[in-house]
Amino acid sequence: MAEEPSKGGRHLERKLTLSFAALGYITDTAQKLGLLPPPPLPLSSDEWERVKQRSLLQGDSMQPCPICKEEFELHPQACLQAFEKFTNKKTCPLCRKNQYQTRVIHDGARLFRVKCATRVQAYWRGYIVRKWYRNLRKIVPPTDAKLRRKFFEEKFTEISHRLLCSYNTNIDELFSEIDLCLAVNRSILQQLDERCGHEITEEDWEKIQVQAAHREIYECSICLTPLSFHGDCRQAAVGTSGQWPRETVLLSCAHLFHHACLLALEEFSLGDNAPFHACPLCRSCYQKKILKC
Fold first, then answer.
1. Backbone dihedral region for residue 275 (phi beyond 0: left; psi -120 to 50: alpha; all else: beta)
2. Backbone torsions φ then ψ of 200, nearest 5 degrees
3. Domain end point (choices 139, 158, 177)
4. Which residue intervals define the domain RING-type in the entry (predicted)?
5. I need a surface site. Which of 62, 96, 114, 289 has the fewest CB within 10 A?
């Protein structure tokens, strides 16, 4: 923030203003009395035209303003008025001539328009040439080996990127589908575990055995040979020189098979990737119990 002038400074400024005013009054009075030469007459149109032609030959309008060192733009210049107000006299800041005359010309504004148009055209032409050169570099490979290799690497990268963008890679949808499949698999495994995972008690096995007896199953459905029960074991052993018959196994679905046949079937079906073995008759998961002779 600018400091306010002191009382002494204001008094000195007032004295200087009064002195310049008195000097101007004395000069006007001396000129009227013929003691000093009168001020020059206003220039005619021809004289102004000669002055303008000399200014054009010197290129004054193309140079910046001698006071502010800026270009003569389109808006009116107020530097000369500010200089006259600051010096409190009419003296040229270059040649120090007193009592000069002024006239507004528009050569500087015209030259400034031409310069701006030239600058805009230069920027636009530069943009067009740079764009054309970038497209040319994308089409024509360079001759240098390293640059040529880099050129084709960028080409292959661009082609691969376009191919990847052409495919619909919705990662969120893929993850949602995976989660749904996992939930369905867990539900199926849970249902199988509820059906086949719990242990069957002895009372339940007795009920299943009674149910199997009501079905009157007398042969193995795998090998199609007769099954051996409690009463048949000893008779078969006596009749075959002490060779015991094959063991019979009871499934939780109330079906009967030879134990060896069922084991062979289970080993044969290991490649099915099933979490549980299925009964060869009803296709349900089962638990088994070997019937003792």
1. alpha
2. -95, 130
3. 158
4. 220-283
5. 96
Structural domain contains residue 189 = no
How, if at all, do strands 256-258 and 248-251 pair?
Answer: antiparallel
The highest-confidence range among 184-193, 245-254, 273-282, by mean pLDDT, is 245-254
Q: Per the domain annotation, does 171 fall within a domain?
A: no
Domain limits at 135?
110-158
End of a domain among 127, 158, 189? 158
Determine the Cα–Cα distance for residues 274 and 276; give it in Å rounded to an integer.
Answer: 5
Give the global pTM.
0.37
Whether the CB-CB separation of 248 and 229 falls below 8 Å is answered with: yes
Residue 161 in tokens = 């990127």
C-alpha angle 16/17/23, rounded to 5°?
85
Structural domain tally of the chain? 3
pLDDT band at 153 (very low <50, low <70, confident <90, very high): very high
Q: Which amino acid is at 30?
A: A
Compute how many other C-beta atoms are within 10 angstroms of the C-beta atom of residue 133: 10
Are the C-beta atoms of 229 and 291 separated by less than 8 Å?
yes
CB 270 within 8 A of CB 232: no
